[in-house]
Amino acid sequence: MKNFVAVLVIVAVVLGFSSIFVVKEGQRAIVVQFGKVLRDADTGEPVVYTPGLHFKLPFIEDVKRLDARFKTLDGNPDRFVTSEKKDLIVDTYVKWRISDFATYYLSTNGGNQAQAEALLTRRVSSGLRAEFGSRTIKEIVSGERDNLMREALIRGADSAQELGIEVIDVRVMQINLPTEVSQSIFQRMRAERQAVAMEHRSEGREQAEFLRADVDARVTVMLADAERESRELRGQGDAEAAGIYANAYGKDAEFFSFIRSLQAYEKSFEAGNDVLVLEPDSDFFKYLKQSTAN
Asked: Residue ranges of the Band domain (predicted)?
């Protein structure tokens, strides 16, 4: 009898623990019975359990807990084609959450998040491809990005509903050209810049030659004017000197001749060892002869 009571107690405890389940904060739970999601008898809607303590039928009902928080799908950059048949490498991310837990559970192989994100990626990428394919590169990068993301969000939200997923936001983080195209564009831009630089250098050299020739011409004219003025001044000075000499000579010709002779003697004998060969009756020694005679 005691053993029977003990067995009953153990069975009751096991049944009690098997019929209680806890849903944590940030989670929602659904109950699966014989492979089907438990639904409300009146409305037919799936029963979704919120955080807290709940009860279920032991061994018959199985609890499936699902993450109800916002999640970010940030995949690898993908290649998209524009309306011009140009390739772009686009990096995007998607904000999403579960909106229909029963549908999500059934469409993702028992709530497998990796499978859900793979399915969601295909649907969002399909919407993005349609939007990129209807626009040119210029439209995408110059002002159509907001419209593109809005239309992609609408397309992604519509297609994700059949997965039980609500798409909150679709964002294009970065748009790049493929490496081979980027290199080609870079080479073309560099060639264009080099051509412009060569043109500027050529114009600069031409301008420099023009300025140099202009300055050289001005210098030549200034030097010629200075030389002409100096000759005029020198001529005026020589004329004035000649006039002064002539005036002095006219006042006392003998004294003037004497002074000039002394200056000639000084220049002739300033070295001290000069030899002059002159005739004895030369006028050069006229004043010396007079001095000796006196």
From this structure: 18-189
